[in-house]
Design a protein that fits this description.
111 residues
């Protein structure tokens, strides 16, 4: 896209769609559902391609929007990392419980 082809309204619509996908992903994460990131990744890649093709003035115009996107993504990443840590702790607890149960069962069989 050349700077002459830049359509700020379309870029803003695309950005709002991406922000909506992030918020939907956050709701899914909060609800313990699986979050599919491929659509989000593709849309962000498209936005980045558009931003790289912009002229200097156009980049200045959308810089606050891109900063908001970066902030949203940063928060989403933090929340996903926390969820991952929580799941890891739960899995370790299940594993420890299973090991203890198996040990008690083995001890009971050998008596």
């Amino acid at each position: 896209m050349s700077p002459e082809q830049f359509k700020p309204d379309q870029f803003k619509k695309d950005l709002k769609r991406v922000l909506s996908l992030i918020r939907t992903g956050q709701r899914y994460l909060d609800d313990g559902k699986v979050v599919e990131l491929s659509a989000l990744e593709n849309r962000i890649a498209d936005l980045c391609d558009q931003a790289r093709a912009m002229g200097t003035e156009q980049r200045r115009e959308v810089a606050p929007l891109l900063a908001a996107l970066t902030d949203e993504l940063g928060q989403f990443e933090t929340n996903m990392q926390q969820e991952h840590s929580d799941i890891q702790r739960q899995l370790r607890g299940i594993s420890n419980t299973t090991q203890a149960t198996n040990a008690y069962a083995q001890a009971a069989r050998t008596k």
